[in-house]
Specification:
100 residues, mainly alpha, single chain, elongated
Length: 100
Amino acid sequence: MVPLNHYLILSAILFAIGTAGVFVRKNLITILLSVEIMLNAVNLTFVAFARQLGTIDGQVIVFFVMTVAAAEAAVGLAIVIGLFRHRESLNPDMFTSLKW
């Protein structure tokens, strides 16, 4: 049986990679992927604690988080496509104002 600490360390590493991706990258699609990595790190933590406590509460929360993440990815991708069609760039520095 793998101890809880291993899951938490892996989750912290994944969250740090996602955070670094959000702050370092200059492409909106990679930023959205980094946010998804961060959400998966949190999901791993929920599942690890649910396994440790012997309940399914964490797994239920993960189900809802994954549902919201799928909707967020769809809406985010639609916004990115709309911005790309208007500005022909995915550089976040180009989107400093909300004017079209």
